[in-house]
Amino acid sequence: MTDPTRSFGHELAAALRAGEVSSRELTQAHLENAERQNHALNAWLSIDAEEALRQADAADARIAVARVEGSEALAGLHPLLGLPVALKDLVSVAGGPCTAGSRILEGYRAPYDAHITERLRDAGAVLIGKTNMDEFAMGSSNEWSAFGQVSNPWDLDRVPGGSSGGSATAVAAFHSPFGIGTDTGGSIRQPAALTGTVGLKPTYGRVSRYGIVAFASSLDQIGPFARDSRDAAALLHAIAGRDERDATSSPVPVPDELLDIPAADDEAAAWLEGKRLGLPAEYFVKGMEPGVEERIRQAVDALEGAGATVEEVSLPHTDYGLATYYIVVPAEASANLARYDGVRYGHSVRLEGGDFIADYLATRGEGFGPEVKRRIMLGTYALSAGYYDAFYLKAQKVRTLIKRDFDEVFESGIDALVAPTSPSVAFKFGARIADPVAMYLSDACTLPANMAGIAGLSVPCGLSDGLPVGLQFIGAPWSELELLRFGRAYEAITVDADWRRLEPTQLSIADDAAGPTPSERAARLAAAVA
Questions:
Q1: Which helix (H) or strand (E) covers residue 155, if one does?
Q2: pLDDT tens sequence across 45-78
Q3: Which pLDDT band, with edges at 50, 70 and 90, does 137 fall under?
Q4: Which residues are CB-contacts of 72 (< 8 A; sequence separation ≥ 6)?
Q5: Are 114 and 212 in contact (CB under 8 A)?
Q6: Domain residue spans in the chain?
Q7: Ramachandran quadrant class, 18 (left: phi over 0; alpha: psi -120 to 50; beta: rest)
Q8: CA atoms within 13 A on the CB side of 251
Q9: Which residues are catalytic?
Q10: Strand 416-420 to strand 276-280: parallel, antiparallel, or no bridges (unpaired)?
Q11: Is 516 exposed, middle or buried (0-12, 13-18, 19+ CB in 10 A)?
């Protein structure tokens, strides 16, 4: 293979089994991209090339044994065997760093593997490193990482979305065919939209949260990044399933059909025949960029032209979603982050002559960044005496109404909802930093699915002003297979679109080791505005 980094994961899996390339060769090629371009993109917080190549050699050995045993043994290997995967840096890998993008966990080493790490090891995936992220997954732009901003490979002066911007960028920039993110209010789907990748938020409970640094426990869900729907399906198949160590992990079976998403475009497109899609008016939010709306409308027309029926539907409590989310989430975050006290692990400050309380306050003051502090304060306020009923309890009641809206739509026979993923394309560094409310609005189209605990998928649907736009499919609980079939069908009916053959436009600039870092770019933009 001339350049394995440009191939889809399912193509690489076939090439590995055919002996056209080794896992070591394709892992080395991806590592070279990641190491060469990380100066400009800052997508990676750590890369363990030595361990990755060891895992690649082990995968090659497994393939060699299967090849001797025959075609049936080869066919029984998981599609992820020997393929690189990028892990967001809140996934525990035994002995490895796990910072969650925060100084308060700098130097911490995970003592055990997360459930998904175990599952990926079982599949034979190659774990090449940990990706950058907004601190404790709190952010929509990857500007809140304690270790610097991440650049979007389509325009290095722009954000990749967040909080899983590092994983999205790693996949978009051909550093890895697969990535792992977490989605609390859109943190997989929104960066997928802004970087031109595929991102799936599974149903809450589909993937175990054991070994994942917690943000808001009733909403966090782990999911895949990939460059097409077939690869996203294969990664979900590897990581999903019941885990007895996580009480919220569901026993609902993981469908093996995730590994049989149609390869042929005609077969994939035929899925749309007779399907009913709902188009919620509430998702075309105020302030949506005209170019984004135009691409979404064109995608909807294409789906109708391929045999689907698109009906306008209403989700009347959507308008309350943002306010509800930003009461529930900070409340849960304030409780989860109380454990970072400087005593048990991570960053610790010991003041001369100070007592425990003084050390505790100094540790948290130094260790947490401004967005984390803002949300801790909001959450603590919402949970405080006299305000719990007025804010948190009421928000949970509204959350029930949001879920009921979705239930009623799906009970009416709608197979899935189709909507924008993000109301805008990637914005420039600093454009929303000074206005937290404007930043929070970035998730207006994604967070309702988290509030309801249901599944959502973002797939690329073209460009606006030269930047990617994401189309979102939202489904009932446990509908990941159906959503991925919708995504694959859309890929099939747009296979000849010119934009499908484009790569991120500034990858060549990212090759320049002497160029500015994302933090330097952000500072330059801020100075120009000032």
A1: none
A2: 999 999 999 999 999 999 999 999 999 999 999 9
A3: very high
A4: none
A5: yes
A6: 4-309+408-529, 320-399
A7: alpha
A8: 2
A9: 88, 163, 187
A10: parallel
A11: middle
Beta strands at 126-131 and 84-88: parallel, antiparallel or unpaired: parallel
User: DSSP string spanning 100-126?
Assistant: TT-GGGTT-B-SS--HHHHHHHHHT-E
Q: What is the pLDDT of residue 435?
A: 81
Per residue in 280-313, pLDDT (tens digit) is 999 998 889 999 999 999 999 999 999 999 999 9
Minimum mean pLDDT among 75-79, 435-439, 506-510: which range?
435-439
State percent of the chain over pLDDT 90.
92
Q: How far apart are CA 442 and CA 364, in angstroms?
A: 28
Q: Does 466 have pLDDT greater than 90?
A: yes
Angstrom CA distances, 299 to 284, 461, 471, 490, 497, stand at: 14, 7, 8, 8, 12
Whether the Cβ atoms of residue 446 and residue 417 lie closer than 8 Å to each other: no
Q: Name, in order, each residue with C-beta under 8 angstroms of 445's C-beta and a sequence gap of 6 or more.
A: 186, 283, 285, 419, 420, 421, 422, 423, 472
Mean pLDDT of 502-525: 96
User: Residue 73, exposed/middle/buried by CB under 10 A (0-12, 13-18, 19+)?
Assistant: middle
Residue 76's pLDDT is 94
256, exposed or middle or buried, with CB in 10 Å at 0-12, 13-18, 19+? Answer: exposed
User: Is-contact 190 303, C-beta < 8 A?
Assistant: no
So what CATH class is 4-309+408-529?
alpha beta
Q: Taking residues 321-339, what's their average pLDDT?
A: 94
β-strand pairing of 276-280 with 309-313: parallel
* 227 token code pair: 């460059």
Q: At what angle do helices 115-123 and 229-239 cross, to 10 degrees?
A: 110
- pTM tops 0.85, yes or no: yes
How far apart, in Å, are the Cα atoms of 381 and each of 138, 170, 441?
Answer: 18, 37, 22
Helices (H), 175-244: 189-195, 229-239
For residues 424 and 438, give the distance between their C-alpha atoms in angstroms, rounded to a whole number. Answer: 12
Query: Beta-strand (E) ranges in 287-355?
Result: 309-313
Tokens in use for 370? Answer: 């401004």
Flag the least confident range among 271-275, 346-350, 460-464. 346-350
